[in-house]
């Protein structure tokens, strides 16, 4: 007998699929039953959500929080504000913090690089607080950076109160937001992202394993982070790459360490089986030249500010085409970054995705005679169509 819960879930699944791959939805079955409070399956290239259940529900993220702590550390290293070899003096607060530990000692100095490994692989609360204090002076100040970065990334259902994920009523995130953060981490720095797949880290004579069991079970999996508290249950954000396709699965609130690995593996298997990802343009790519009227130059180079990619039903990606559609009449001046058209991804006559086409350079106004001549040309063009 079909239960109302099953029908509700089936309807939600098809709603998600229609939103992301409407034109080919009948080719994709609903996702498997996932024993979790919340989950999201995302295509890493496009950011398209392929499947979800309560993906925007606010839940305690436990140690998934440390993904943001590590991400900010990566950004600070890229900006040159901290360096892997910097030595950090361990405070009493960092040393005394309970929960999972790297086992650093109060008053001792530990390198930023070792703390980074301790945060990601050993899930050290002590390492997280030490890093936060080194970057911002205090954990409270660092939390302000975390929340600002979450807002910048579009993590609309996230608020942090600490750098570790220890329980607090105002500390929450969502499966969707953590998938967004995972995508940012993957794209930020390949060298730092490679640390997420390391299975062990030896520090102070203690060799601790990475808690992500999928690293041992599936060679395609190369990150990211586990989390667990009594309130949150067992959580996992994992990413895997097969061929040119990378998927991200975020699972909140399973019943055990084994369950979070098994349920996440189900999602990833489903995604790779029934979806294909195709990237048309990388971030910053020049797509076309657009004619410019009344300008110092006759055309301007146009491109995209972000990756242009889509995920569609398996076997359908080769049917897609990308079309640049510039504004019909672009008049100088044109500033770098101005939106001057659209890039459409189409399947036949159906638009699957649309992104802005932007000027990658500036074009100033032309001289007096250029402007007069182009005004005459535009007049007659309008007159005769």
Automatic annotation (TrEMBL):
Instruction: Spell out the SUPFAM superfamilies in the cross-references.
Output: beta-lactamase/transpeptidase-like, Penicillin-binding protein associated domain
EC number annotated for this UniProt entry: 3.4.16.4
- Reactions accelerated catalytically: Preferential cleavage: (Ac)2-L-Lys-D-Ala-|-D-Ala. Also transpeptidation of peptidyl-alanyl moieties that are N-acyl substituents of D-alanine
Keywords assigned = Carboxypeptidase, Cell shape, Cell wall biogenesis/degradation, Hydrolase, Peptidoglycan synthesis, Protease, Signal
A single MF term (Gene Ontology): carboxypeptidase activity
Domain Peptidase S11 D-Ala-D-Ala carboxypeptidase A C-terminal, chain residue ranges per copy:
275-365
Q: Does the keyword DNA-binding apply?
A: no
InterPro entries in alphabetical order: Beta-lactam/transpept-like (IPR012338), Peniciliin-bd_prot_C_sf (IPR015956), Peptidase_S11 (IPR018044), Peptidase_S11_C (IPR012907), Peptidase_S11_C_sf (IPR037167), Peptidase_S11_N (IPR001967)
Keyword Cytoplasm listed? The answer is no
Gene3D superfamilies in the record, alphabetically? D-Ala-D-Ala carboxypeptidase, C-terminal domain, DD-peptidase/beta-lactamase superfamily
Annotated signal sequence range? 1-24
Pathway given in the UniProt record: Cell wall biogenesis; peptidoglycan biosynthesis
Q: What does this protein do?
A: Removes C-terminal D-alanyl residues from sugar-peptide cell wall precursors.
Similarity comment? Belongs to the peptidase S11 family.
Put simply, this protein is called serine-type D-Ala-D-Ala carboxypeptidase
